[in-house]
Amino acid sequence: MREYLEIEGGYPLKGEIPISGAKNAVLPALAATLLAPGTYRFTNWPRLLDLYTMLELLSHLGARIESRGPVLEVDTVSAEGVEAPYELVRRMRASILVLGPLTARFGRARVALPGGCPIGKRPVDFHLRGLERLGARIEIRHGYILARAEDGLSGAEIVFDVPSVTATENLLMAATLARGKTEIRNAAREPEVVFLGEMLRAMGARIEGLGTDHLVIYGRSELEPPREPLRIIPDRIEAGTYLMLPGITGGEITLAGVEPAHLETPILRLKEAGLEIEAEGDRLYARARRPLSPLKIVTAPYPGFPTDLQAQIMVLLTQAEGLSLITESLFEERFHHVFELRRMGAEIELDERTAIVRGPVRLQGAEVEANDLRASACLVLAALGAEGVSRIYGLEHLDRGYEKIEAKLSALGAKIVRKSYEGHQAFGPCGAGPRD
Ligand code: UD1
């Protein structure tokens, strides 16, 4: 049985949405549990498909997982496996995050090579070159990355061509157990990287420069699990997605349990478009002033405008008066949603990496399907603002990154229900590829 969301759009939404723990923070944090045997505890962890995939991978490696009420407990005392099988990596490319910890701790790892579809080539060369710089020998055999460092890793200087989030995380983790000093230049500065760095510090690692593009790590011979449970930081992408709602559906919303500082750029840009947004502690209050103004957006690594909100802001800009330009600078093929939005009446042209959005248009409900996580979220937003009924297929993507989406939206007054149907997985050119 497969599922779709049926949404009757056109109703203003009003109320409060609790924001979940961040998918992109919990995944590296779970991978980091492989660096030292012991018991790790996490709170504010999101119940997401990607998290369950990572837990499956950890238990495949020998870890024991238990959820005790609000606490997720991971015991890595008997986690001695070193192989991440294709079956799991194909479901979630972030599985590559175990490569650094396994190589650093056990001196070897065998991790399936992630594919490239569906939002661009998405190579892993930075991860591999970085590990080579740390002294690992890397081979690609039969679709698997084989990493070997029998005598352990040694500190080195690593420079990225462009900042990569998971490559920074992988090498940061590996460097904590390497001999001597490692420097990572042009490192990613995302809050999720900082969160991982803080976890590693709580495990005994010595790291300088967190939150900057120059990380310095002094390796240790061993680490230990943090003494206190770790609270997963709020999901800034989930929060940013819902923050668009007042501009798309009208009404007013409050996001609860957010970190407004992590959303500085999206908040600034949404204010320019005409949203009124106020922050108070860990809450954000938003409503929209119509008509919305068009924007020029270029996605960039943090603290720039996140590529993971590109699809969602495109929906908002279909409601702005005039021409908006959205340039995707990270992932060359992250525009699949444009074709679906057009089917809902949006007027969007593509010029290589730039989408030209003409607004305002009244979106119309339609049957649509997305092939990646954020594109599916954008279709939900579009359906909520559209006239009539939409059906959104491909929920296996949405469920990877949005916890209880229909419950959260129903609480705001949205008419949204999940339904089942008999069907098969779509296998287009990118249909079954791994997602962000
Ligand atoms: C992470 C996020 C994803 C987000 C992306 C960009 C996680 C689990 N996923 O993905 O949600 O969309 O950051 O913010 O945190 N690159 C290379 N070679 C490499 C690695 C990356 O050329 O080895 C390039 C990529 O093609 C891309 C850029 O670097 O153009 C940044 O991508 P990267 O930050 O690595 O994305 P992910 O870490 O995969």
The gross shape turns out to be globular
Note the main sheet. Answer: 4 strands, mixed
Structural class based on helices, strands and sheet pairing: alpha/beta
In CATH, the architecture of the largest domain is: Alpha-beta prism
* Order of the strands making up the biggest sheet: 22-23-1-24
Strand portion? 25-35%
Distance between the termini: 24 Å
CATH topology of the largest domain: UDP-n-acetylglucosamine1-carboxyvinyl-transferase, Chain
Radius of gyration: 21 Å
The tally of beta strands, per DSSP, is 24
How many domains? The number is: 2
**CATH H-level homologous superfamily name of the largest domain:** Enolpyruvate transferase domain
Give the helix level as a range of percent. 25-40%
The CATH class of the largest domain, by name, is Alpha Beta
Helical segment tally? 15
Integer average pLDDT: 94
Give the distinct bound molecules. Answer: uridine-diphosphate-N-acetylglucosamine
Pick out the low-confidence regions. 427-435
